[in-house]
Amino acid sequence: AGIVSSLSALVKELVDAAEGERKAVLSQIEEE
Description:
By secondary structure, the protein is mainly alpha-helical. The protein has 1 helix and no strands. The protein has one domain. The longest helix is centred in the middle third of the chain and has 30 residues, at 2-31. It is rod-shaped.
């Protein structure tokens, strides 16, 4: 159970990071 919960936490961090990068890229595109 500990491994699964740490994996899901890691996945959530990756998803949050990817979402943040995507928003940053979109805002850069809109500025141009």
